[in-house]
Amino acid sequence: MPTADTSPPLVIRDATPADFPAIAAIYAHHVLNGTASFEETPPDTDELLGRRAAVLAQGLPWLVAELDGRVAGYSYATPYRPRAAYRHTIEDSIYVDAALRGHGIGRALLLMLIERCEAGPWRQMIAVIADPLGGSPALHRGAGFEAVGTLRAVGFKHGGWRDTLLMQRALGAGSSTLPER
After folding, report:
1. Measured between alpha carbons, how far is 111 from 13 in angstroms, rounded to an integer?
2. H-state helical runs in 7-92
3. pTM above 0.85, yes or no
4. Mapping DSSP to helix (H, G, I), strand (E, B) and coil, where does residue 32 land?
């Protein structure tokens, strides 16, 4: 006889300003202890709220995963590059509470981020993965991304040179049609 799943549901929703102390704590852990971000000093809550405002001003989403009433992770998309020719290409970012890794939170965040971005004018999503030996490459492959290149020794953090893996996936029609004007 199957047992009922009694684990709390994971809710993916738009981030609110009230989420940002938890977001700042999650990100600070990754900045200080990992290589998923090349920042070396964790930004404070106000700085992250400013970054959120810039993301929202571009019409892009900033999402949180809520588990049992607490922020378990977050994701957002930003323009890939500032020049006009790149306007249909965006970059994803995903961070999960270190204590909750391996529970499908990153996957849920990435899939919802893709879905939300496909509703907009964007045609390509890029992942710049600063920890190519971590779980992010498999997470992205599972969401339809392909590895398209490696930039060798482009970051220096925690006493060593770090590579970045570039992965890419089409959004919606991708490059099969011209964008709307």
Report:
1. 12
2. 20-33, 45-57
3. yes
4. helix
